[in-house]
Structures are given as structure tokens and as C-alpha cells.
Amino acid sequence: MVGSTAPIVAEGYGDEMRRAEREIRDPGELEDVIRRAEVCRLGMVDGGEPYIVPMNFGYRDGHLYFHCAREGRKLEALRANPRVCFELEAGVRTVRGETACKWSTAYESVIGWGTATVLMDEEGVRKGLEVLMEHYLEGPYSLDPRSLSLTAIIRVDVERMTGKRSIR
Fold first, then answer.
1. N or C: more exposed end of the chain, with fewer CB within 10 A?
2. Is residue 3 in some structural domain?
């Protein structure tokens, strides 16, 4: 379930949208896209190279939550540089056209930026998993105690985001 804290809409970063009529600026509409998205792509920098990973996620009160193992490439990259970018989309479908150049895609998307924190304490992992589960499942559900000790949570504090839609 989406939290009550309104997201920060990107402004003044030199990233004004060329097709302004497609921009989603309303915080409630941005959260609606997040609520309907199935996957979030988390972008980071690993050794000076871009690295992006599609992940299950949850969102609450201006924070994205992801789960992963307690070791691996994602965590190494985030410890070296916690700055991230993320992307989500909903309602994606191909729109057929009469000619090749008339084909298109209908979509609603959100792109945002923030800072990641890795949580490994039981309380942080439990909260992160609960937020994640709420995104995909209407309770009740249970958390395996053994999994809590094997799981890390990546919490992204969302600093700004913007959206775009092309509905045909």
C-alpha cells in the first residue's frame, strides 16, 4: 500500500520534459503508477559503470524497499556509492499502427532519484519485508524467522521523481 507522504516532484534540475503534455506531476498520480507497477528497476554505479537490476519492491512514506541476499554485487556497489536512480512502469502495451513508424507504446512511468541505505537489523528487515509484501499481497501473510537472518533490505529515501504517460 502506498504511504501518505507525498513524493517530491523533480523541479529545476534541467530535466524539463520535451513533451510537457505527457508529464505526470501530481504526487497522487505518481503514487498510483507506483502502486500498479510490478517491478522496479534500480540503477546504481558499480566500479564506474552503470548497473541496473529489476527487483520486487514496496513503497511507503517516500521510501522504496527492496530485498536481497546479505552479500553480492548490489550491496558492494551501494556501499561504495549509495546514490541511485529508479524506474517503474504500469499499463504498458504495444499500440499497432498501419505502418512501421505508426506503431507506439502506451505506458505510464516514474523515474526517480534517491539515496540507498542497507538494513540488516531484524526490525529494519521485518519492516522492509512487510512493506514489500503489502505491495503484492493483501494479508494475512507470515515471515519466516530464518529468512529474516538471511535477508538484507535496501531502503531508498526518494528525493525526487517525475512521471510520463502515453496512453493511446
1. C
2. no
For the cut 60, the answer to whether the pLDDT of residue 27 exceeds it is: yes
pTM of the model: 0.87
Which residues in the chain belong to E strands, given as ranges? Answer: 23-24, 40-46, 49-55, 58-60, 63-69, 83-95, 104-119, 151-166
86-119 residue pLDDT tens? 999 998 888 889 898 888 888 899 999 999 999 9
Answer whether residue 40 is part of any domain.
Answer: yes
Domain ranges, residue 130: 20-166
The residues, ordered by sequence, that sit 6+ positions from 93 with a Cβ below 8 Å of its Cβ are 105, 106, 107
Number of domains in the chain: 1
Residue-wise pLDDT tens digits, 30-76? 999 999 999 999 999 999 999 999 999 999 999 999 999 999 999 99
Contacts of 50 (CB under 8 A, 6+ apart): 43, 44
- Cα 152 from Cα 164, distance rounded (Å): 31
- Structural domain contains residue 47: yes
14-16-18 Cα angle (round to 5): 130
User: Angle at Cα 157 formed by Cα 113 and Cα 76, nearest 5°?
Assistant: 80
State the CATH number of the domain containing residue 132: 2.30.110.10
